[in-house]
């Protein structure tokens, strides 16, 4: 199975977007004639693996390398860099060029920025006095499909940059990405945004529309009906909770990267030990599509049923009383066997983690924190983790959860825990603590927490009786409905107005507007209320909602949205846009790594 | 019948009709073309007139100083200026495609004027050789020119937009050539101009790097003209014959012997079908065969070749000689019974309420669409408005009886004619034929209109044809600014905005740039404010020195690239302290600057933080330096001296202690320094370099693992490690080295402050269940107890799953 996902079942023509990006990339390669050494920054290379086969790049005369501090060893006289316009990468390139110069090598250098040239990156080359040696270009890849309903800008550090560094460049990137989508699918008429970044994106989107208008008259009705933008900052609780869906759990435990996991060969059952195997995970795998969003416990059940039925069929076959057509059915079923085997192995691997008592106690403590019931118990639990020197990332996840739900920590325990962390993990974590405080993730308590109020108003934690309700998204976290998804639910159902009071308790402004080209005026008249437009499925046409998470989204949240749209009577499909797929660890890691 | 009188004006040449309607009577009053050098632009362009200084002429009531006059095609004066250019006699003057008047004087200097008789581009010289040898003759085409010198050398400028004079190959002539013509670059094989020289009894084709002899023995040629498509040459021989030959001289296509052997003054192609020869008083039109047509003139004329005919300019009128288009012939030819003629006739009957109209229509029922189309086409070819009307009415009348005829065709023609009639008005003076108009295209026509400041008409045409009026309004605005030096900025802005708002998405930045170039910086600033495209607005603001506004606009735009642009601009312009001040007042600019500086300008960043009083940030930078020092030490396995590191940390501590908010950091830095010193001591005393870089807890564990309990206790005391943590650390450290006795002893020292959990977990962690059991019984908390027992059973649960899934795998293995 290929790592490049199949997009045929997408509710919107994502293939065309991907094909365009492929074509642009190949054109760039063709622009530089002859043999060349293509140096890709590794993060970008990972993303590109979802876009294009590396063999295609090689066919165009490119010798592939990954960008690092090491000088490039190549026979080619043309060196082509394909890099994200990220500051710290520039020094590698300039050092490569200087290295070549010192050896008296004469080469042609091409630097293609993804998605565009920036003043600041070129400034680095100017300062290093290599600018005149380079031919610059752009590869305008702003957004790419990860799966049939997920689009990503592949921006790793949006959250950190916006909240800690004050660098809002990624907001412009997201705005531009959405604007590009509008060129293909029409101007999105309804926009709801929550959070500072989201509001800024709406601004940017509007000014982009003013600068380079999407001509709505030749596009017909817009294919995407509503855009919902939500800042990650608005809901930092959800990513800190351990994900319990199959896909979420895979990401938490073995890390899903660019739509694939890498595991030891032994996990999959082959005998070569120590070798890593890459397993692609996307909707092209039918079984995976079925179980990816289920709670892990259910996944185990489904797999068990599949396996037993297979076993039964096998027994029947052996009893030889089968007709030929029955045999044929059986053989057909056998085709799904490799898929079953693969997921059984993966599930088994996950189970070695979920069986541990520490796993359960962690889930317990998460729930306790969310219910805001026993602060001391939570505090002691975290204290003990620090004393035991458990991985610092685990400590931070719970600490952030505790701090965010309590609107900060009482000064005494705040200072105490910070000191214990520095003592246990080293003083090198001082900037991390400072950053966490700056981002408001772990801070001193200054006001009373309003988490309970939010949680009650949005029914984030269902009561015992409701917990049995199979139609609610709270199944995702075994009894916690993600705040972000609840907001989306409200935004679609009735707009922000009904939960205005709650929104005010969450960080950042919210806004709700209608836009569009010259025809927008009449469009509004025709659709008196948004509700009637969305909730009722007229002529079998399902409205399409683009939900963009600024600062990242977790697999659990994606699962929740898919679950919502699969519910009876919900007349809409979701396309999920994000700056990056994240989980609690990756968000915190980007804050911890100081450089 | 009216139809007869139309055809009565035609002349038959061979089997084709020609007509020569008068399009303008010239508005320029008394004019004698013979006294002047005249340059007429094709496509109904302007006419430049200047007194000919190569002739001796009588001066009437006029100044002795020569004046350059520019008229439109109807002889309306557009502009004039005194000709006072040095460099000798004017030897060549012509219009380029862009309506730039190129004037070449004897010494090879080239002056360029616009239609307003103003110098529009810097003068340039054709080179030293031209200067020394003197230019004798110039031949122009589209945007290029060749000139011949007295030394019989040829020089060429292939594009006046980017004038780079170059010398062509030397034809090595002793005498000046008899005649000269050029084949335009677009018609030659190699894309460079080819010059034909009539020399002796042959022709030389001169290119940039070669000279080729053509048509040997063709007879000396006195006059030549290349056909509009560059394929044929019309040549007048010394014995009075007119030859038409392909430009490769492979054969003679036609030949006509004139009565005179005197070479004509002018020779020109009329379309592709005939050649015009002009001697004083007589214009002779020679076709492929048959008798030529003779026109007599009692005043001098100038032939202006167009693609589909020749305009004939005389002192008093402008005429257009063209072959009568087929559709017109089919209607107006005497005795024509073509459907179009019958349709036209039917309209006349209809107007007279005669029943014959119906009869006519019946006769041509089957070919009605063809007839309608012919009438529409013929209308398009007419210059006379009333005749256009009649023809269109005829078409409209016929169309009523054939519903399938495409409606657009009629409408488009009406639109085209409206535009043509508008520009043909003598005030505008652009007598385009429909064919010329189609060749020229509307945007170019609009460009020409705005060039001569007919902005309103251009705007009306744009709106009428649904074209974007941006070009027109933009040009108007710029012209307005240039022409309004006496209007103050605010008023002018209002006047401009009033019109600019007509056009959505117009680039205010471009107009502002023009205002700035015209020395109106304040107006420019006001205009930029209206620009919605930040990417255009910001760079312009920088160029007019409005850095602060640029920074605000860049920040608002959300495009951080622009912010960086401004930041770097200011950085370059200002002293560091000023720069710091500006940046610090703008959070986004500051943060972006810090991002960049963090990567590439570490020291400068420190200065910034210091000068703006952000001491804690300096402190963090110092800490970072200290950690980087450690990395380097580790990498180099260098000296274990921690002095420089500790000094940095202490500096940081001092900075932290400056503010109350950083109390925590200050204490931490203090402890950090203390730890390093202590670790250094430990490394010296244990002679093992394993302490530096680890945390306090790690240090304690390492000490215990090494059996150095005294050191461990010392570290504990130095850093006031709590009992709780101490128990965890020690229990785990002892379990790591499986020192079970010490562990037990430790557990019995006193009642552990946090219970026995650390002991149980340490044993389980070391995978020794029997040891663990010792302490499990001592657990008091039932919750802890149950957790541990689950842990002990955990192995079972795992085994179950493996057993179960193993069976599945069996199935799989059987079939694979």
TrEMBL record, chain A:
Entries under SUPFAM superfamilies matching the protein: Sec1/munc18-like (SM) proteins
Ranges annotated as spanning the membrane: 543-564
Signal peptide: none
Keywords attached to this entry: Membrane, Transmembrane, Transmembrane helix
GO biological process terms on file: vesicle-mediated transport
Pfam assignment, any one: Sec1
Keyword hit for Thylakoid: no
Domain of life: Eukaryota
The family this protein is said to belong to: Belongs to the STXBP/unc-18/SEC1 family.
Family annotation (PANTHER family): VESICLE PROTEIN SORTING-ASSOCIATED
Protein name per the record: Vacuolar protein sorting-associated protein 33 like
Source organism of the structure: Apostasia shenzhenica
Name of encoding gene: VPS33
From TrEMBL, chain B:
GO biological process terms, semicolon-separated: endosomal transport; intracellular protein transport; vacuole fusion, non-autophagic
GO CC terms: endosome; HOPS complex; lysosomal membrane
Keyword check for Cell wall biogenesis/degradation: no
Domain Vps16 C-terminal: 506-793
Keyword Protease listed: no
Protein origin, superkingdom: Eukaryota
Compartment(s) of residence: Vacuole membrane
Membrane topology value: Peripheral membrane protein
GO terms for MF: actin binding
Keywords: Membrane, Vacuole
Domain Vps16 N-terminal: 8-409
Cited function: Required for vacuole biogenesis and vacuole enlargment in dividing and expanding cells. Involved in the docking or fusion of prevacuolar vesicles.
The family this protein is said to belong to: Belongs to the VPS16 family.
Protein name: Protein VACUOLELESS1
């Amino acid at each position: 199975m290929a790592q490049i996902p199949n997009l045929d079942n997408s509710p919107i023509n994502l293939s065309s977007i991907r094909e365009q990006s492929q074509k642009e990339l190949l054109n760039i390669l063709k622009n530089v004639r002859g043999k060349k050494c293509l140096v890709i920054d590794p993060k970008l290379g990972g993303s590109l693996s979802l876009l294009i086969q590396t063999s295609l790049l090689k066919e165009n005369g490119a010798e592939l390398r990954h960008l690092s501090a090491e000088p490039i060893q190549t026979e080619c006289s043309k060196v082509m860099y394909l890099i994200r316009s990220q500051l710290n990468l520039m020094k590698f390139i300039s050092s490569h060029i200087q290295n070549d110069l010192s050896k008296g090598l004469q080469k042609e250098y091409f630097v293609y920025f993804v998605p565009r040239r920036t003043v600041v990156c070129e400034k680095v080359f100017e300062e290093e006095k290599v600018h005149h040696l380079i031919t610059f270009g752009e590869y305008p890849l702003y957004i790419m499909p990860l799966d049939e309903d997920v689009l990503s800008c592949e921006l790793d550090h949006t959250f950190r940059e916006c909240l800690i560094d004050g660098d809002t460049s990624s907001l412009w990137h997201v705005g531009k990405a959405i604007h590009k989508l509008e060129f293909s699918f029409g101007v999105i008429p309804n926009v709801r945004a929550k959070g500072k970044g989201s509001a800024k994106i709406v601004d940017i989107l509007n000014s982009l529309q003013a600068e380079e208008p999407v001509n709505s008259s030749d596009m017909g009705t817009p294919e995407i009906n509503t855009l919902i933008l939500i800042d990650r900052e608005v809901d930092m609780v959800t990513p800190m909770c351990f994900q319990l869906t199959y896909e979420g759990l895979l990401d938490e435990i073995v890390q899903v990267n660019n739509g694939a996991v890498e595991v030891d060969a032994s996990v999959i059952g082959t005998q070569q030990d120590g070798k890593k195997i890459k397993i692609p995970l996307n909707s092209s795998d039918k079984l995976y599509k079925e179980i990816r969003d289920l709670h892990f416990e259910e996944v185990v059940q489904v797999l068990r049923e599949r396996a037993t039925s297979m076993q039964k069929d096998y027994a029947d076959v052996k009893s030889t009383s089968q007709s030929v057509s029955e045999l044929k059915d059986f053989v057909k079923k056998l085709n799904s066997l490799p898929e079953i085997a693969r997921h059984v192995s993966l599930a088994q691997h996950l189970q070695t983690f979920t069986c541990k008592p520490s796993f359960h106690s962690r889930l317990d403590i998460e729930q306790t924190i969310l219910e805001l019931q026993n602060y001391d118990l939570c505090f002691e639990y975290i204290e003990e983790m620090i004393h035991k020197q458990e991985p610092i990332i685990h400590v931070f996840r719970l600490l952030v959860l505790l701090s965010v739900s309590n609107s900060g920590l009482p000064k005494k325990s705040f200072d105490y825990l910070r000191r214990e962390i520095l003592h246990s993990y080293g003083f090198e974590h001082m900037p991390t603590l400072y950053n966490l405080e700056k981002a408001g993730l772990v801070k001193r308590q200054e006001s009373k927490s309003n988490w309970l109020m939010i949680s009650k108003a949005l029914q984030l934690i269902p009561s015992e009786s409701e917990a049995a309700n199979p139609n609610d998204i709270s199944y995702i976290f075994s009894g916690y409905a993600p705040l972000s998804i609840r907001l989306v639910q409200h935004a679609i159902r009735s707009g922000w107005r009904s939960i205005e009071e709650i929104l005010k308790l969450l960080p950042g402004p919210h806004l709700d507007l209608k836009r569009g080209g010259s025809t927008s005026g009449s469009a509004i008249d025709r659709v008196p209320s948004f509700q009637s437009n969305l909730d009722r499925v007229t002529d079998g046409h399902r409205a399409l909602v683009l939900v963009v998470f600024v600062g990242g989204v977790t697999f659990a949240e994606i699962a929740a949205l898919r679950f919502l749209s699969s519910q009876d009577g919900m007349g809409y499909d979701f396309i999920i846009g994000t700056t990056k797929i994240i989980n609690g660890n990756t968000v915190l890691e980007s804050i911890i790594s100081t450089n | 019948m009216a139809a007869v009188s139309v055809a009565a004006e035609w002349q038959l040449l061979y089997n084709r009709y020609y007509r020569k309607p008068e399009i303008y009577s010239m508005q320029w009053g008394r004019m004698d073309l013979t006294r002047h050098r005249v340059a007429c632009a094709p496509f109904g362009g302007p006419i430049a007139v200047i007194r000919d200084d190569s002739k001796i002429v009588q001066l009437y009531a006029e100044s002795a100083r020569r004046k350059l006059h520019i008229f439109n095609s109807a002889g309306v004066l557009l502009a004039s200026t005194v000709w006072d250019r040095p460099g000798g006699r004017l030897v060549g003057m012509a219009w380029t495609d862009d309506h730039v008047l190129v004037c070449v004087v004897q010494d090879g200097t080239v002056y360029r004027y616009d239609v307003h008789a103003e110098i529009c581009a810097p003068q340039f010289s054709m080179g030293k050789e031209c200067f020394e040898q003197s230019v004798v003759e110039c031949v122009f085409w589209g945007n290029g020119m060749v000139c011949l010198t007295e030394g019989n050398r040829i020089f060429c400028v292939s594009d006046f937009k980017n004038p780079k004079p170059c010398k062509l190959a030397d034809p090595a002539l002793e005498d000046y050539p008899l005649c000269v013509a050029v084949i335009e670059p677009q018609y030659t094989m190699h894309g460079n101009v080819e010059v034909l020289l009539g020399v002796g009894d042959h022709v030389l084709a001169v290119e940039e790097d070669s000279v080729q002899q053509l048509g040997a023995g063709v007879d000396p040629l006195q006059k030549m003209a290349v056909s509009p498509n560059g394929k044929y040459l019309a040549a007048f021989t010394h014995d009075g014959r007119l030859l038409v030959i392909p430009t490769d001289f492979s054969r003679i296509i036609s030949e006509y012997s004139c009565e005179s052997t005197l070479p004509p003054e002018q020779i020109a192609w009329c379309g592709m079908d005939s050649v015009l020869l002009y001697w004083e008083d007589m214009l002779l039109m020679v076709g492929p065969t048959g008798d030529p047509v003779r026109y007599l003139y009692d005043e001098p004329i100038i032939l202006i070749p167009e693609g589909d005919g020749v305009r004939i300019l005389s002192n008093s009128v402008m005429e257009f000689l063209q072959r009568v288009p087929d559709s017109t012939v089919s209607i107006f030819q005497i005795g024509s019974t073509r459907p179009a003629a019958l349709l036209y006739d039917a309209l006349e009957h209809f107007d007279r309420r005669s029943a014959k109209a119906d009869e006519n229509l019946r006769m041509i029922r089957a070919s009605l669409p063809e007839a309608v189309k012919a009438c529409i086409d013929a209308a398009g070819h007419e210059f006379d408005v009333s005749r256009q009307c009649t023809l269109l009415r005829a078409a409209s009348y016929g169309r009523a009886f054939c519903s399938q005829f495409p409606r657009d065709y009629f409408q488009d023609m009406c639109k085209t004619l409206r535009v043509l009639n508008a520009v043909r008005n003598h005030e505008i003076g652009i007598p385009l034929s429909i064919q010329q108009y189609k060749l020229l295209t509307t945007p170019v026509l609009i460009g020409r209109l705005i060039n001569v400041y007919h902005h309103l008409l251009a705007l009306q045409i744009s709106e009428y044809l649904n074209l974007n009026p941006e070009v027109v309004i933009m040009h108007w605005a710029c012209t307005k600014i240039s022409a309004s030096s006496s209007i103050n900025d605010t008023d002018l802005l209002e006047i401009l905005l009033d019109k600019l708002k007509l056009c959505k998405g117009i680039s205010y930045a471009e107009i502002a740039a023009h205002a700035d170039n015209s020395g109106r910086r304040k107006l420019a600033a006001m205009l930029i404010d209206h620009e919605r495209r930040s990417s255009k607005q910001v760079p312009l603001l920088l160029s007019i020195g409005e850095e602060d506004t640029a920074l605000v606009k860049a920040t608002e735009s959300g495009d951080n690239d622009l912010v960086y642009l401004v930041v770097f601009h200011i950085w370059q312009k200002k002293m560091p302290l000023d720069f710091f001040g500006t940046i610090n007042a703008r959070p986004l600019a500051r943060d972006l600057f810090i991002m960049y500086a963090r990567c590439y300008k570490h020291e400068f960043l420190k200065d910034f933080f210091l000068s703006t009083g952000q001491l804690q940030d300096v402190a963090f930078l110092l800490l970072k330096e200290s950690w980087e020092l450690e990395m380097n030490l580790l990498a180099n396995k260098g000296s274990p001296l921690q002095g420089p590191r500790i000094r940095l940390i202490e500096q940081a501590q001092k900075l932290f202690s400056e503010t109350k908010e950083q109390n925590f950091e200050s204490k931490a830095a203090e402890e950090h320094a203390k730890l390093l010193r202590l670790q250094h001591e430990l490394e010296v005393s244990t002679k093992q370099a394993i302490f530096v870089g680890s945390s306090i807890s790690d240090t304690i564990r390492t000490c215990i693992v090494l059996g150095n309990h005294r050191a461990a206790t010392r570290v504990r005391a130095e850093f006031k490690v709590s009992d709780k943590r101490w128990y965890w650390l020690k229990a785990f450290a002892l379990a790591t080295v499986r020192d079970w006795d010490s562990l037990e002893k430790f557990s019995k020292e006193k009642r552990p402050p946090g219970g026995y959990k650390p002991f149980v977990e340490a044993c389980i962690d070391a995978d020794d269940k029997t040891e663990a059991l010792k302490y499990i019984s001592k657990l008091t908390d039932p919750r802890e107890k149950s957790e541990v027992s689950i842990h002990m059973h955990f192995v079972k649960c795992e085994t179950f799953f493996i057993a179960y899934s193993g069976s599945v795998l069996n199935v799989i293995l059987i079939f694979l």
